[in-house]
Amino acid sequence: MVDRSKPSQGEYEQGAKKGPLENKAVLLGIIVIVQALVAIGLTQYVLIPKLTVQQATTGGGGISEITAEVPQRGVMVGLDDIIVTLAGDSRRPHYLRININLEVKDKYTSETVKMRLPQMRDAVIMTLSDKSVEDLSRPGGKMNLRAEIFRRLDESIPGGKLMNVYFSDLVIQ
Fold first, then answer.
1. How confident is the model at residue 41, as a pLDDT?
2. Which residues of the chain have pLDDT under 70?
3. What confidence score (pLDDT) does residue 147 get?
4. DSSP H helical segments within the chain, as ranges?
5. Which of 11, 17, 108, 129 has the smallest C-beta neighbourhood within 10 Å, fewest atoms?
6. Residue 102's closest CA among 57, 48, 154?
7. Starting from the edge strand earliest in sequence, which strands make up the sheet with 95-104, in order?
8. How many CA atoms lie within 13 A of 3 on its CB side?
């Protein structure tokens, strides 16, 4: 007679529970997580510090040379709204409303520009009134206008202290 209360050796091996490391999906998941953690650790503690040191020493000047490469910000001076009649057909006039801001190198220059504001506005008005709608509408027209205004104003500001000209509003009607 066969005793069924105890499983046989073959039944015992088939019915035994598998450990978590014997399951292929769990094992694969653990491997992926460990690889991700190793990659993050290498990036944070090996690669990023080396890149930072390499950037700081580029050119041999150290950190002070890097800060010298950062573009300097100037002081902004607004010329307020300017409205002009554009050149062209006098039967149907077109108007331009523009707001221009100048970026100058330092506070002293900004004070000089503020004292000479009527002269600056006059130079801009004379430049704008020579333009037609077609001049401003063609590709690159506004960039050419900006360059021309820059040239005219740069002549009025001593020492080449004008850094840039910005249009904060430009409406053609």
1. 80
2. 1-21, 47-71
3. 92
4. 9-15, 24-42, 48-57, 63-69, 107-115, 117-129, 133-137, 141-156
5. 17
6. 154
7. 75-85, 95-104, 162-172
8. 5
The pLDDT tens digits of the residues spanning 41-88 come to 877 777 666 666 555 555 544 444 444 455 678 889 998 899 898 888
Q: Write down the pLDDT at residue 66.
A: 46
Task: Name 94's Cβ contacts closer than 8 Å, sequence gap at least 6.
Answer: 85, 86, 88, 132, 133, 172, 173
Distance (Å, rounded) from C-alpha 88 to C-alpha 171? Answer: 17
For residue 22, the number of C-alpha atoms closer than 13 Å in the C-beta half-sphere is 4
Q: Residue 98, Cα to own-chain centre: how many angstroms?
A: 25
What three-state secondary structure class fits 96? strand
Q: b/e per residue, 107-126, with b = 16+ CB within 10 A?
A: eebbebbeeeeeebeebbee
**103 burial type by CB count under 10 A (0-12 exposed, 13-18 middle, 19+ buried):** middle
Cα 72 to chain centroid, rounded: 15
